[in-house]
Design goal:
With about 600 residues, the protein is mainly α. It is built from eleven helices and two strands, in the order H-H-H-H-H-H-H-H-H-H-E-E-H. The chain has a two-stranded antiparallel ribbon. Helix 8 (about 405-430) packs antiparallel against helix 9 (about 435-460) and helix 10 packs antiparallel against helix 11 (about 530-585).
Length: about 600
């Protein structure tokens, strides 16, 4: 009874698994027993899955299934009819079957003449179910409940992760769609700009085509007028040549007459030259002959000019005929557009080259200005260093040997100052190895000076008279050197002014070139110049810009060379002052 009654039956799955629904009541003890037995068979294990979901019920073992749904079809869940049990019932003996005697309830009757045979409910628990089997079934239920809980957690985690991934994908898709919309709008704006630029270029092409056609018409008219002028000029030249030929023949006849008269001067025959001396006749004949030669040379030159003009007239006539033929036949629009595009491209390239040259010149002029300012600052720094060195030398000369301690301190200060100056020069001009070597020599000389002063301390004599003479000589040399340095500085200033003037001139020239380039078409005597003239003008401007750039580079090179020479002069002056200082200290 403990194992059969539903109210006292232990729930193996409730203590382990998380079940939400209440178990369905069993319909009788026999149904519970057969349900437990069906879980042990392969068919019974599958039957709970076919009817109730274990996730919804919370238990892996099916419960609450009627007996008729499992094994016995539509039979009653409580009673089994006699016709389904093979027993032999007699009046004299008890039924020989494993079924126990009935104890309670109402049985199923079998119809007889005397009455109803009463059969009690059958209990099969003690015969078919043992406690060990029930315990094993409970353990399996607990294990299945635990596995179901783990699977539920995994399903929940997978659902959460899939939901997060779906959110992330949705966010990325939204961002991507926004980017696509922005790109579409941007591409639409770019397409609008390109269409606008296309319309502008088409209008420009139409305008240039009209300009080319009008310029071609004007050129044809100009060539016709030039042809007429050349015709008139050739006719004039032919008349002049004829006149000169007649004059040459006239002078030739006069020369012959003069020669004949000279030969007949001694005879008595009257002649136009009678009474003239041979010298007069000879002089007149030579002058006539000279004039005749001059006229012949003039005639030859005029004939050459005539032939050249005739050739030019022929070329112009050929060109005019070709232009007229082209105008008559009509050149194709494609060729006109190609030529126009080529001219525009060449014009654009030349303008771009001019712009780059102007920009490069402006950058280079700015660089030159900065270099000039840097050179000026370095020159001032070197002047300050030179003045400091001269003042230190003058202080050491005036001090003498009496103040030995002061001399030693001043030498120490001078030594430290020289070291600082050396570090500064090495940091500023690392590329000048000669300056480094000179500074190292100066350090050695100062160390020798310290040794000489240390020796002079031990000598107790006063060379003030000699030091006065040496100081005066040093003062005069320093004054002369300062004058020379002042002249060099003035010359450097003049060079800087010249460089500034060159830079300003280049800037003005660049501005003029920019203004000229802005005028894309030039009007001369009411006629528009051709594109070939514009291209030639731009080429001339480009060559002029190149020339100005070369001049600017030469001026910059001259300024750099001038600064180098001035720097070398400063370094030479500094080394001379150091040598004088060393000599003075040696005398001291």
């Amino acid at each position: 009874e403990d194992w059969v009654e539903p109210s006292r039956k232990p729930d193996w799955g409730r203590e382990i698994s998380t079940q939400t629904g209440a178990p369905a009541p069993l319909e009788g003890s026999l149904a519970a027993n057969l349900s437990a037995l069906s879980c042990l068979s392969p068919i019974g294990k599958l039957s709970p899955i076919a009817h109730t979901s274990p996730i919804g019920r919370g238990s892996p073992i099916g419960r609450g299934f009627p007996l008729r749904d499992r094994a016995f079809g539509a039979l009653s869940p409580r009673f089994i009819g006699v016709e389904h049990i093979d027993i032999d019932v007699t009046e004299d003996e008890e039924p020989q079957s494993p079924i126990e005697s009935p104890t309670r309830g109402v049985g199923v009757g079998v119809g007889t003449d005397s009455g109803m045979l009463q059969l009690q409910p059958v209990r099969l628990l003690d015969s078919y179910v043992e406690a060990e089997t029930v315990a094993r079934i409970g353990a399996q239920r607990a294990h299945f409940s635990h596995q179901l809980g783990l699977l539920s957690e995994q399903v929940t985690g997978i659902a959460e992760r899939s939901g997060w991934t779906q959110q992330e994908l949705s966010r990325k898709a939204t961002s991507h769609n926004l980017q696509l919309v922005q790109a579409h709008s941007k591409s639409g704006e770019e397409i609008a700009l390109l269409k606008k630029e296309l319309r502008r270029l088409q209008e420009e092409n139409k305008r240039l085509l009209q300009a080319v056609m009008s310029s071609a018409t004007v050129e044809v008219e100009n060539l016709q007028a030039e042809n007429e002028r050349l015709k008139r000029q050739i006719d004039d030249q032919e008349r002049i040549v004829g006149a000169h030929q007649r004059m040459a023949e006239k002078y030739k006849a006069l020369g012959n007459t003069a020669a004949l008269g000279l030969s007949m001067n001694t005879s008595d025959t009257p002649s136009p030259t009678k009474g003239l001396t041979p010298d007069d006749l000879s002089a007149g004949s030579s002058s006539y002959y000279t004039k005749t030669l001059q006229l012949l040379e003039e005639n030859y030159s005029l004939a050459s000019e005539n032939s050249r003009l005739s050739e030019e007239r022929r070329k112009m006539a050929d060109k005019l005929a070709r232009i007229e033929a082209e105008a008559a036949e009509g050149k194709s629009k494609e060729e006109d557009l190609q030529q126009l595009q080529a001219l525009k491209e060449e014009n654009r390239n030349l303008a771009q080259q001019c712009y780059h040259l102007i920009k490069a010149e402006a950058t280079q002029s700015q660089t030159h200005k900065q270099e000039i300012a840097m050179l000026e600052r370095k020159r001032l720094d070197m002047q300050v260093e030179l003045a400091a060195a001269v003042s230190q030398m003058n202080g050491l000369v005036k001090a003498g040997v009496d103040d030995a301690s002061d001399d030693n301190s001043e030498v120490t200060v001078a030594w430290e100052e020289a070291r600082r100056n050396k570090d500064k020069l090495n940091a500023e001009r690392t590329q000048h190895e000669e300056a480094k070597e000179a500074l190292r020599q100066a350090q050695t000389e100062i160390e020798e000076l310290q040794e000489a002063l240390a020796k002079a301390k031990r000598v107790s004599r006063s060379p003030r008279a000699a030091s006065d003479v040496v100081a005066r000589h040093l003062y005069l040399s320093v004054v002369n050197d300062n004058q020379r340095l002042a002249e060099d500085n003035a010359q450097l200033k003049r060079a800087s002014k010249q460089q500034k003037a060159t830079v300003s001139q280049l800037e003005m020239e660049n501005g003029r070139l920019v203004l000229e380039m802005q005028d894309s078409r030039h009007v001369d005597r009411g006629r528009t110049s051709s594109l070939e003239d514009q291209v030639r003008l731009l080429k001339d401007k480009l060559s002029e810009s190149n020339r100005l750039r070369r001049e600017e580079a030469a001026a910059a090179k001259y300024s750099v060379e001038r600064f180098s020479s001035t720097k070398e002069a400063y370094e030479e002056q500094l080394s001379k002052l150091r040598r004088d200082y060393s000599d003075l200290c040696g005398e001291v």
